Amino acid sequence: MHMKPETLYADFFGLSERPFTLLPDPAFLFWSKAHRNAYTILDYGILSRAPITVVTGEIGSGKTTLVHHLLKSTEEAITIGLISNAQGGRGELLQWVLNALSLEVPEGASYVQKFQKLQDFLIAEYAAERRVVLIFDEAQNLSMEGLEELRMLTNINANKDELIQLILVGQPELRDMIRSPKMKQLAQRVSANFHIPAMDEETVTEYIQHRLRTVGGQGDEFSIGACKMVHEQTGGVPRLVNQLCDIAMVYTWSKDERKVTEDILQSVLDDGLFFTASFASEESDKT
């Protein structure tokens, strides 16, 4: 069978594309109660001019997809810079910020010159009645020094108005970093925060059905028992749910069957193709 990777079993099930790919895609955003709450916090952080907003969640919990949805939905009067996986010491983070806002500085520019460039831009945006929001995705990769540098950026203001707002999105360890005694001043500037928990059994079932229907399916391509088993094996982490469901649909297709059952999922597990199962159970135990 020679099929494109992006279709694979999709045609067999009458789907427009594979419903369980691993790439973040706003088109597949499933609005669980937790995701609605997380998005509300993100939106509230922007509207309330919160200096720093923090959203955390496990790997694959849908944080980046939420960020992409936010980018599409933000009003035009807000300038947004997205920084993904920023790392480095003093000065390097500032360069990431300048790049995200498409601000150019001469090669070899000093830290002071870079900071002045940013400050001038923020003041100009403020004068034009625009607000600037910086989103740091995978913010747990920032060092303590980097987080402190971000706090310093929030000190740039005009009268009593904030000229820049920060949204930090990352894995649970980001919360631990911010709660560190060394980060007390940063923590005091966090006005809104939310943690996305793993999905429970009912939400996993709704999630699977939602993704199937998004690509033209009926939503019942997985039996209820299979959905329950997916939750047990993944701990409710969306990325792991996608991985297991994708493999299960390949197996179902190869057996020329139309419904993913517990027996098919067991075959996937017995053949060792879902090697993150043990990791998932460990993550489930933590929640």
From TrEMBL:
SMART domains: AAA
InterPro entries tied to this protein: AAA+_ATPase, AAA_22, ExeA_AAA_ATPase_DNA-bind, P-loop_NTPase
GO molecular-function terms, A-Z: ATP hydrolysis activity
Designated name of the protein: Type II secretion system protein A
Alphabetized SUPFAM superfamilies for the sequence: P-loop containing nucleoside triphosphate hydrolases (SSF52540)
Signal peptide: none
Pfam families: AAA_22
Highest taxon listed in the record's lineage: Bacteria
